[in-house]
Amino acid sequence: MPYYRLFYHFVWTTKNRLPLVTDHNREAIYRAIMAKTKQLDGIPHALNGMDDHVHLVVTLPPTLALAEFIGQIKGSSSFVASRQANGEAFGWQTEYGVLSVSESHLPYVIEYVKNQQAHHSQNSLDTKLETLDLS
Fold first, then answer.
1. Which domain holds residue 49?
2. What is the 3-state secondary structure (H, E, C) of the chain?
């Protein structure tokens, strides 16, 4: 088993930034994201978001391409969300953002993601972690 310490912060949005992640489907979507992350040998550190986007902080093995990882995460969670949608369309934007995170900054990023709702309601957003052009 190779030794690695690779930390990433992914952000992706719903199709057309519509508020598609709801109280009705959020738990199922997050469960699907966590399950797929672990299935791909990732180590999830934090997962949270708002009605129109998701943040995931994760350690990934060096054998897994980032595009392959996020494609599988979005695919499995979209499948689950569509089944929960009661006929309403659900989808993720094609694009996504990903930043590498240094180990020294990992605790800050984890706490930031865990406190998404507070940051958005108090307008205390970290522009480095929020202003990815995902439109």
1. 7-127
2. CCCCCCEEEEEEEEHHHCCCCCCCCHHHHHHHHHHHHHHCCCEEEEEEEECCEEEEEEECCCCCCHHHHHHHHHHHHHHHHHHHCCCCCCCECCCCEEEEECCCCHHHHHHHHHCHHHHHHCCCCCHHHHCCCCC
